[in-house]
Specification:
Length: 255
């Protein structure tokens, strides 16, 4: 019987694998800055050349980016090939907003369900913090700021689901989600009732996750998306009625 020789893993490969695992798990997000080589060497208890070699390997794989003047960050290129065409499509065809709402209905329902089951104390604190930032942004009545806070809140739910595929899909869609939420706010907040309902719905989602009630969390998330879609439909029909009335008035003036 013949055995294969065991080749010990290089230290740099071990370091690279651990950094890669943090990226895959979502602990290191696109744009996050890594500690310095000295700090990483100390944390891993290895030499700085080993850390440098590990970083170079991850840069070659486009997982990390190095910057002139020093510093290494997690690549911001994740999902660009997916997001950019969708952003362009959304800009050209506003009705694509409804397609995204359908997608969010499925994705955020699952995320909320799993978050209620899997969230730990740290996850719950982050969700509460993001919700508080959302409420503060809501008070500013700035659609841009609130839309970003809204997406951050939903991402905190996805993070708490501990489903790395779901999380990275949502992160890759961040810009698209931000733009769609901003468009939705611009329309929905013409109605005082809608303006109050949206924060209340976010609070219900958060509470269900904090309570560990998976069924309720999923239901509240899906109800939120359904409410947004229904309200946008109603506003669209109201706009159509107004346009029709205006055309009749213009015709009357020409008689």
């Amino acid at each position: 019987m013949a055995f294969e020789k065991i080749v010990p893993e290089k230290v740099s490969d071990t370091v690279a694998r651990q950094i890669e695992a943090q990226i895959a798990a979502g602990a290191l997000r696109p744009g996050d800055r890594l500690p310095s080589e000295r700090e990483l060497a100390s944390q891993f208890a290895v030499s700085r050349p080993s850390v440098r070699e590990a970083i170079q390997k991850l840069v070659a794989r486009k997982l990390l980016e190095t910057h002139r003047g020093g510093g290494t960050t997690v690549s911001n290129q994740f999902g660009e090939s997916f997001t950019d065409p969708l952003l362009e499509l959304l800009g050209q065809r506003p009705e694509t907003l409804y397609d995204l709402l359908e997608f969010r209905d499925a994705l955020e329902g699952i995320a909320s369900y799993q978050a209620a089951q899997r969230a730990n104390d740290t996850d719950r604190k982050i969700i509460q913090h993001r919700y508080q930032r959302l409420i503060e942004a809501h008070a500013q009545e700035n659609h841009e700021v609130e839309a970003r806070a809204d997406v951050d809140f939903h991402l905190s739910i996805a993070e708490a689901s501990h489903n790395v595929v779901l999380l990275h899909v949502m992160r890759s869609l961040f810009d698209l989600l931000h733009r769609s939420v901003r468009i939705s706010f611009r329309q929905l907040y013409r109605s005082p009732a809608d303006r109050q309902a949206i924060p209340d719905q976010h609070a219900a989602i958060m509470q269900a996750v904090l309570d560990g009630d998976a069924e309720s969390a999923q239901a509240r998330a899906r109800e939120h998306i359904a409410y947004v879609r229904r309200s946008l439909d109603e506003l669209s029909r109201a706009d159509d009625r107004s346009d029709n009335s205006l055309r009749r008035l213009q015709q009357l003036a020409r008689q």
